[in-house]
C-alpha cells in the first residue's frame, strides 16, 4: 500500500520512471560493456604466431628446390614437397580452428573461408600427384610447379589474414575509447567498469607488445628480422650521410646447413641456429644490428665502421664460430660460417645496393671453399680505401 501511495504522487512517478530508464540503460550498457570487453580482450598472439610460422613453409620449399635446380630432380625433391604438403595442411587446419574460436574475427574473415577449403583440396590433389611421382619420376617437374603455385596462394591467404588481425587489433583501441565514454555516462557502474577497462587495457598493451615483438624479431632465434633491419638501415644510412661516416654490412651464412638438417634432423638444425645466433649476438657490438634474414643467413649492420675494421670483426666471428662447442648437440664437427663484407661511405649507397655487394662477396666466399671472409667494395668505396691505404703508407714512411 505504501509503495502504491508513493507511486500515485508526481515525485514518485518521476522516481519510478528514472529507475526504469536507469535499469534499462544499465542493462543495455552492461550488455555492451560485456560484448566490448570480450572483443577487447581477444588474444590474437597465438594466431599471429601460427600464421608467421606457416609463412616459412613456402620460402623453405623454394630455397630447397632452387638449391637443387642445377641438378637433375630426384627423390629429395619429392621429400621436400611431401614435407611441404604435410606441414601446410597442418598449419592451415590449425589457423582455421583458431579463427573459428573467435566469433568477431570469423565475421571479418568470412570472405576467406572458401579459400581454406580450396587450398585444402589443392594440397590433397598435390599429395595425390606426389604419390604418382614416386612411381613416375618424370612427372616431378609439374609437381614442383604445382607446389610453388600452392605456396604462392598460401602466402596470399596468410598476408590477408595478418591484415585482418592487425585491423582487429586497431579496432580494439576504438572499443576502449567507447567504453570510456560509456563509463562516464553511467557513473553508478564506474567502479566495476573501471576495473574491467583497466584489465582490458593491460591485456591489450601486453598483446600489442608481444605482437610488436613478433613483427620485429625472428621467432626461432630471437634476433631481429629483415623488416626491422631495413628500418634500421634507413636510419643509419641517413646518419652516415649526415656525418660522412662509413657503414659496413656483413652477410653471414652457415656452411652446409642443409646437410645438418638432412643428417641430424630439423630440430637439431633449429638448435644449431639458436646457439649460433646467441654466439653472434654476444660477439656483436651494442651499436651493431644483427638480424636473421633467411633460413641460415644473417646480416650484421655496422655503423661508423671502415672496411679493415669490418674485416677484422668478420674474421673474429668466423674463428669464434669455428671453435665454439655447441652444447647438447652431438655433431661430428662444429658448424662454420662464410662471410661477405662490403662498405659504403657517406651514405652514398642504398641498403639494397650494399646488400647486393655483400651478397656477391658471400657467394665468392662460398665458391672459394667456405669458412672464409671475402669483401667486395663499391667503386667509390674502393677509391676511398686506396686513398686511406696510401695515406697510411705515407705516415709509416714518415715515422
TrEMBL record:
<keyword id="KW-0472">Membrane</keyword>
<dbReference type="InterPro" id="IPR029787">
    <property type="entry name" value="Nucleotide_cyclase"/>
</dbReference>
<feature type="transmembrane region" description="Helical">
    <location>
        <begin position="12"/>
        <end position="34"/>
    </location>
</feature>
<dbReference type="GO" id="GO:0052621">
    <property type="term" value="F:diguanylate cyclase activity"/>
</dbReference>
<dbReference type="InterPro" id="IPR050469">
    <property type="entry name" value="Diguanylate_Cyclase"/>
</dbReference>
<feature type="transmembrane region" description="Helical">
    <location>
        <begin position="179"/>
        <end position="202"/>
    </location>
</feature>
<dbReference type="InterPro" id="IPR000160">
    <property type="entry name" value="GGDEF_dom"/>
</dbReference>
<dbReference type="InterPro" id="IPR043128">
    <property type="entry name" value="Rev_trsase/Diguanyl_cyclase"/>
</dbReference>
<keyword id="KW-1133">Transmembrane helix</keyword>
<dbReference type="GO" id="GO:0005886">
    <property type="term" value="C:plasma membrane"/>
</dbReference>
<dbReference type="GO" id="GO:1902201">
    <property type="term" value="P:negative regulation of bacterial-type flagellum-dependent cell motility"/>
</dbReference>
<protein>
    <recommendedName>
        <fullName>diguanylate cyclase</fullName>
        <ecNumber>2.7.7.65</ecNumber>
    </recommendedName>
</protein>
<dbReference type="Pfam" id="PF00990">
    <property type="entry name" value="GGDEF"/>
</dbReference>
<dbReference type="GO" id="GO:0043709">
    <property type="term" value="P:cell adhesion involved in single-species biofilm formation"/>
</dbReference>
<feature type="domain" description="GGDEF">
    <location>
        <begin position="245"/>
        <end position="378"/>
    </location>
</feature>
<keyword id="KW-0812">Transmembrane</keyword>
